[in-house]
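Late entry, written up from scratch paper. The run itself happened at the end of the previous shift, but nothing got recorded in the book at the time, so transcribing now.
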Amino acid sequence: MDVDLLRPGMIPIAPNTKLWFEFLIEPSLLEEHLNKSHADPSATELLIKFLYSSMERPKDLPLIDIDDLMDNSRIDKKIEYRKRKKYECLKILAMKIVSFWEWDLNILQTRVPISLQIIFVQDLLDLVSNGLNLIDFESHISIEDLSQLNDEQVFAIALFHRWTLTVIINYTLSKKSSFTLGPVQDGNEDVLLKLEMQSELSEKMLLRLIDLKRSSYTIPTINTFDPPNELKPLSCNWFKGLTVSSAEFLSQIMYDYAKYKFFKAQYEEAGIYFKKCKELNVNLTPSSFHKIKLEELNGFCAACSSEITENSSLLMQFLYSTQTNHNGILKILETDNQIMEIPMFLRDSLELDLASMLSLGKFNASRDMLLHIHTMNAIRRASVTSGEIVLLPPEDYVTKIKFNLRGPDIFLKDIKLCTLIKDKKFRKNIKMFVCNVLLKCPKNLVKDILKDGREEIDELFGDEDIHTLLTLPEDIPTVNIDMSKRLDRLKITQIHNVNVQKVLLKNKISIEYDSNNLRNLLQQLHKMDVDPMFSILDINYEWQVPLPLQSLLIGLPNGLFKFLVIILIAKSKEMIKLYDFERAKLLLREAETETKINNNIMYSKIRQLISWEGLYTEMLQFQYEFKNFAIGDLVERCKQCLEFVQSDNLIPRQEIAEQCVLTLLNVGEWEYLTKRHYNCFKLPLAIAYTCLDVNKFKGTKKSAKEVWDLILPVFDYGYSATNKRPLDGDPQCTQNRVLSQNDIMRVFLSLRDQNAIQIVLSLLAKIQNVLRDESAMELIMPFLNIWPVVPNMSIPLRNITEVLGIVLTESLKYHPNHIILLKLKGDLQYVMGHYSSAMKWYLEAIVIVSDYFARPVLKPMIEDYVYKRMMKCCMQMQNFTQAAILCLFQEEIDYATAFKCASETNSSDALDEYYDYIWDISLLEFLIYWHTKLNHQEHRQKLLKTIGALELNANNNEEIKREAANIRKLKFLRALSQQYVHP
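Output as recorded:
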């Protein structure tokens, strides 16, 4: 390697190896190294190393952590030690690397963990503070006159607030696509939540910076930062920076600000600043600081613009026309037949949408317009497809020409436009298309077309071709079938015209979701219905209305109000099944609005029930979207709903009340729930009791008998009923029925709170451990000690395993980076004998703990038992070399197993490809002995080269040995992840 990241020891080093402090002695060495085409280590690895090293804990001071970095009230004391000269040197080296990247925030955010990004931007603010304490970003807004700040202070403040907004955008997008925002951790979401809280401050600061009046700005470069030494303190030569124009500096700020506004769907304001940014870029000569892509900027401007001109792209004109009553659509399609810019699927969609709107009466246009679009779409297909496909023109298009009085005229008019195009291939395809259309038409229609369109046809065909077309025989004759006898045989009565109209109206009602349109359709249906009463729910047998609402609404007289409210409620339930919660809530709000026409007690009850259905929908949305859902006043509304549960008047249905309890459980309102007594919701309340006790006693008290007594009878019917204890002191509760497995699964799969999930999973893991009764195959979880010990249980092990697997899989959907859940998933796969899958889940946990192998794996997070089980998985799959190396990860190295695995001759893994990852001298010496014994000279030579590495020398100090081990451990784990996690 070119640069040795390890610290120097007491042994000689190779002459071509550089140590990190040499970058301080000779600053030009760093730039020289970074400019290499394949620098090893890369700029990213160096930056991460420098930032991590700058956070190392001196013996006399505590370690800094990410929570402190985001809390300005605690940061001062924690980072005081980082002002020591050694750490200042590392900070300056980090600044030089980001300067080499030309302050590109996209590179910083995609390559560096977010915890280190926070360290870097705060170091930059601290470096330029000059007595202002800029590291406290909340104090930025209190700076009255930004024009009094130096260039470097303005640059640092602008970079910090640009970084805040862009990191929010990129992190949100990374969860919805393959884009990655650096190594992802479970704690990243808490950090991003705090950044979102300060985003309003960042917006205000960027707007103030945009109003600054300066002719130019100075941007730091790699030569700006001068590391301190024993003779001089830390200093920065700001005059050595890159001078950029005011337009270039401000356009970059405007661009990032506008992107954030666009991300927040505030398109009008985003468009203003995108337009200003575009104006600044017209006469701009970009420097290396300029990171705006003009194509992307033009795209944003077009997306925010509501004005379409002739200079706009044809695709933009097409999309604008489809949204504005299809004005000028024929001209756009004619032009597109020449330049072929609009995707064919959009043109097909236009054809279908327009036909649908015309049939429903939603669009007023002549039928000729639709045939024009059919013709131009058919020509477009013919112009880009091969001859074989052109020989099969669509039958429905020929039919449309036959049955439209102006069909031949429209066909000839659109063909005439094509004859103006001189491209030979295009004309050949059009000729083939016209020929095949004429072959499908009746002979008399062909004669009319050839007669009326002599000029257009002569452009494509000669006299001989026309004669051939006229002399071709008629197509296969149409067979007329008398359907009346068939109908009589099937006893199908003829449908009256009124009934046909009613069927059509009901079909329209079933697909309509706008309340005004529904009202009009229902009025027509009600006038047409000869029966005095009909059930509106018969329109669609899948529609459902909750029974309390249905019983109140059925009692009302038939009329528009009754039918409209029933349909709106039924359609909202339909949207819930499709997980379209926003539309479901909108339909319920419209139904609730309808009930405000009357204030009598019946309408008030209906309104209250609809309001509870809206609350139920919002709770389901919270459960489905979870971390992306804004809670707002949901908690208070749940509490208000539960107050009606035990009232004597109107009460919410049981599903709503139970969902209220589950929602409060998932937001941590355990103390509130424990003060209530609901006989119907014993299981969620018992889980809330346990969550409260576990948090109070830290899992040291056996306080979970209530949950145990409720769950165990579901699986173990022999569990004594005398063991059950009521939750609320009511002796009648013991007479209640035992919960069914459907009941508990509904509750388990609704849990989103991490504490509640861990408690349920630990209970299931405890039952499985008792049933399996093998210490080597136990599932490891927190809180296993809080459950009572029941030695004799008659439960099928398979039942518990299936339930545990289902609940765990559902929990991982909402907590994909939860270390404990990932390890439990690995344990479950391990005890089931799925060894490759177990390796995958163990390694995913390690990936998150190590920031995707950017830092050493912490022992408290990944315990020895994990490495031991990974080792056994590898042995079962006959990957003995991997198993031997995994033996070295344990606190007490199992040399007996390691040597046994290393001496296996039928290993299925990469064998000597893993030898470079071994850091243990004893294992290397054994392998050398073993391969020498077997006369494997190639393997022996590779091992001798490995054991001769400088950092593995036995005389090195402990710090070098530890660093060498950490580097090899991470490389080995990365290789395993490529095999098991990302095969």
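Residues 679 and 736 are 9 Å apart (CA to CA).
(Scratch paper discarded after transcription.)
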